[in-house]
């Protein structure tokens, strides 16, 4: 019987869903949302805060500040409340209302930038505000998930080894690309592993992460409007880009089987199943990472009016289409 004294001490790290009955593809989905933060971001948040305390960057009276589209903000809100820090999350209008309310319920302050940066979009505007805030008062400590090596090290130390233990004959791994901390941690781990694993990054159409042109993105989580500094494409084998309507379709298809997952998970699953459809997969062992659960998307992805207003009334009936490219 698990007994914990801090919320970050609990994280179910060994749960997989066999998606063969749902998508008719050989794919195992690693579920990362069963913790008090509700997403895989708990790992990076815990590692970054712990190292900042160890190095003396975080001290009594410090105020943590971070830019986040949602999931990391919730994880940091939880840890800040547990360890006695104030936390300011800088986000933008795409952050789900339930996510914002969760952070506020945990005692955090949420600041929403309303105008995108002319070159960096909403992310650029968020980063500009964070820098201004830190310059105004030395109590503010920016953990900077975009450049902090502890973000990818958390997954090199935990997520990669957990997958390797569960699937010693792993052939293909699908990981979503946001800040690329999860992606780079897993990719670095499997580059050093004893057998070859094909690592496929899954990104959203409209994201500039891999050099594609920017476009409107309404689902938070994966994708960026500024190329992530942590990204090293030499560790990747392939990139899959997923249209947002296909993210919505994947989420609804899973929900019809009783699995309520979030937008980032829908994107990864859509990209993975499309890739598997185009390859000879009968002998492949494939795993995809599910970063989050679906409760925070009830007002967006699972809300009919929201979906139809953005993507059309027939979005859930159309065929899926994705584009692929080799990583450089």
Explain this structure:
By secondary structure, this protein is α/β, with parallel strands linked by helices. The protein has 11 helices and 11 strands. 48% of the residues are buried.
Strand and helix map with partners:
Blueprint: E1 16-18, H1 20-23, E2 28-31, H2 41-55, E3 63-67, H3 71-83, E4 86-91, H4 97-105, E5 109-112, H5 121-136, E6 140-142, H6 149-157, H7 159-166, E7 172-176, H8 181-191, E8 198-204, E9 238-242, H9 244-255, H10 263-277, E10 286-290, H11 304-311, E11 322-326
Parallel strand pairs: 2-10, 3-4, 3-6, 4-5, 7-8, 7-10, 8-9
Antiparallel strand pairs: 1-2, 9-11
Annotation keywords:
Rossmann fold; seven-stranded mixed β-sheet; four-stranded parallel β-sheet; 328 residues
The separation of the N and C termini measures: 47 Å
Estimate the mean pLDDT confidence. 92
**Main sheet specs:** 7 strands, mixed
**How many separate structural domains?**
2
Q: Write the H/E string, N to C.
A: EHEHEHEHEHEHHEHEEHHEHE
State the gist of this model:
This protein has 328 residues and is α/β, with parallel strands linked by helices. The protein has helices spanning 20-23, 41-55, 71-83, 97-105, 121-136, 149-157, 159-166, 181-191, 244-255, 263-277, 304-311; strands at residues 16-18, 28-31, 63-67, 86-91, 109-112, 140-142, 172-176, 198-204, 238-242, 286-290, 322-326. The model has no long low-confidence stretch (mean pLDDT 92).
């Amino acid at each position: 019987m698990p007994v914990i004294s801090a919320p970050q001490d609990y994280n179910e790290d060994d749960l997989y869903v066999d998606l063969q009955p749902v998508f008719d593809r050989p794919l195992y989905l690693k579920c990362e949302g069963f913790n008090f933060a509700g997403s895989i971001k708990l790992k990076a948040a815990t590692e970054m805060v712990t190292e900042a305390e160890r190095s003396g960057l975080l001290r009594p009276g410090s105020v943590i500040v971070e830019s986040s589209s949602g999931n990391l903000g919730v994880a940091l809100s939880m840890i800040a409340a547990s360890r006695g820090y104030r936390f300011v999350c800088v986000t933008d209008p795409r952050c789900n209302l339930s996510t914002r309310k969760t952070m506020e319920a945990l005692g955090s302050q949420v600041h929403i930038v309303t105008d995108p940066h002319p070159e960096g979009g909403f992310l650029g505007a968020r980063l500009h505000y964070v820098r201004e805030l830190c310059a105004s008062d030395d109590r503010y400590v920016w953990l900077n998930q975009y450049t902090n090596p502890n973000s990818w090290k958390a997954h090199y130390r935990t997520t990669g080894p957990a997958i390797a233990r569960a699937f010693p004959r792993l052939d293909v791994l699908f990981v979503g690309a946001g800040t690329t901390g999860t992606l780079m941690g897993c990719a670095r781990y499997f580059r050093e592993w004893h057998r070859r694993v094909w690592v496929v990054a899954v990104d959203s159409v409209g994201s500039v992460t891999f050099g594609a042109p920017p476009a409107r993105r309404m689902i938070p989580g994966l994708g960026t409007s500024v190329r992530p500094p942590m990204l090293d494409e030499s560790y990747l084998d392939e990139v899959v880009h997923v249209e947002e309507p296909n993210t919505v379709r994947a989420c609804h298809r899973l929900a019809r089987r009783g699995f309520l997952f979030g937008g980032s998970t829908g994107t990864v699953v859509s990209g993975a199943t499309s890739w598997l459809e185009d390859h000879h997969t009968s002998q492949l062992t494939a795993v995809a990472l599910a970063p989050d659960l679906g409760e925070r998307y009830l007002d967006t992805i699972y809300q009919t009016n929201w979906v139809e207003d953005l993507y059309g009334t027939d979005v859930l009936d159309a065929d899926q289409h994705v584009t692929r490219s080799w990583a450089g």
